[in-house]
Amino acid sequence: MLGLLVLEHKQFRIVAVMQGDDCPALDFLTNVSANHTSSSDGVLEMLAHVAEKGFQGVPAGWAKEANKKHHIMEFKKGDLRLFFFHGRNGDIAVCTCGVVKKGQKADKASINLSAKMKQRYDDTPDDQLIYKE
Question: N or C end of the chain, less CB within 10 A?
């Protein structure tokens, strides 16, 4: 079984992978330093927009591919990066974890963690995905 926390649900569902009782993506967005609060708010607004309208018409600067091999994407706002992958059954984005970007290259540890979460999601049958509001 895999726990998923519903972050936004309108026309499309934005979820985040749970690790036990913790949600790394939500923890990241809600525990940023004071100088990254506006970027965190911006990412949350992006998630609301994507939940409502999907990825159609999303500005190119909002999201990009972070890792081609594992199909990991990232939402970008300021120095913040929230990693995700495309899900199934209405899960338009499955958020995994985030980082404050410090250099030009994507954070390899976060990419690897996201790839492991994606594999776990892919290996979990639909009837064993547990959604929490």
Answer: C
Q: In this structure, how many other beta carbons lie within 10 angstroms of the beta carbon of residue 3?
A: 18
- Predicted structure pTM score: 0.94
* Span 18-59, pLDDT tens digits: 999 999 999 999 999 999 999 999 999 999 999 999 998 889
As beta bridge partners, residue 17 has 4
- Specify the DSSP class assigned to residue 127: G
* Residue 95 token pair: 């958020």
Contact 4, 15 (CB under 8 A): yes
Q: How many residues does the chain have?
A: 133
What is the distance in angstroms between the CA of the first residue and the CA of the last residue of the chain? 16
Other beta carbons less than 10 A from residue 9's beta carbon: 15
Phi-psi category of residue 59: left, alpha or beta, with phi > 0 → left and psi -120 to 50 → alpha: beta
Query: Helix (H, G, I), strand (E, B), or coil: what is residue 106?
Result: coil
How many Å apart are CA 107 and CA 120, to the nearest integer?
A: 20
